[in-house]
Amino acid sequence: MRARSLFAGVIALTVSLGALPAHAVLPDEIMADPAKEARARDLSRELRCMVCQNQSIDDSEAPLARDLRLLVRERIAAGDDDRQVIDFLVARYGEFVLLKPRLNEHTLLLWLSPPLVLLAGGLALWRFGRRKPMAANGEGGAAPPLTPDEQARLDQLLAADSAPEQRG
To answer: For residues 36 and 25, what is the distance between their CA atoms, to the nearest angstrom?
Structure first.
């Protein structure tokens, strides 16, 4: 019983530690000033790893991500503020280096697409929901009457269909 509790505790600890965010920052990258290091970490979370593409450079272990982390720390040590560091990296690597692109004329479609698609979908659902089902309300639910030719053809088909049953 005690071994089972210990095993369950180890599993719970392993799962909880696995849920913590992984950071790839190595000890030799960490700045001596904790305030500057915190700025560097915050900036690193905003920058995309150009190799991994869906990870920040703070989380990526790629060599290019390490180079970018070091570059961020160099710029901070040189006295650049956060905006200057970001502007420097955007000038060097383009807007793609940002995990959250800036709102400008080049990214306007990117930012407006999700709300516009949601709005269009909502309008389509609203219009579809306003349609009256034909058979549900009795209005227009009945089919128009058959023409004499259609009625004669229907009677002929029904007679032909019931004929084998009469023989059997």
So the answer is: 14
Give the three-class secondary structure for 14: helix
Q: What CA–CA distance (Å, rounded) separates 77 from 43? A: 14
Kindly provide the residue ranges of all beta strands, DSSP E only, lying in the chain, ordered along the sequence: none
**Cα–Cα distance between 31 and 40 in angstroms, integer?**
9
Q: What is the mean pLDDT of residues 66-78?
A: 91
Tens digit of each residue's pLDDT (9 = 90 or more) over 21-64: 445 666 667 777 888 889 989 999 999 988 887 888 888 888 88
Q: Tell me the whole-structure pTM to 2 decimals.
A: 0.54
State the residue for tokens 């949601």.
118
The single-letter DSSP state of residue 22 is: P
Of 74, 73, 42, residue with least CA distance to 58: 42
Tell me, what's the pLDDT at 72? Answer: 92
- Residue 167, phi then psi, degrees to nearest 5: -75, -35
Residue 21 neighbours by CB under 8 Å, 6+ apart: 59
- Tell me the three state secondary structure of residue 56: strand
Q: Take residue 165 and report the two structure tokens written for it.
A: 């049953």
CA distance 40 to 36: 6
Partners of residue 56 on adjacent β-strands: 48
Mention the CATH class of domain 34-112. mainly alpha
Residue/partner pairs of 84-88 with CB below 8 Å, 24 or more apart: 85/43, 86/43, 86/46, 86/47
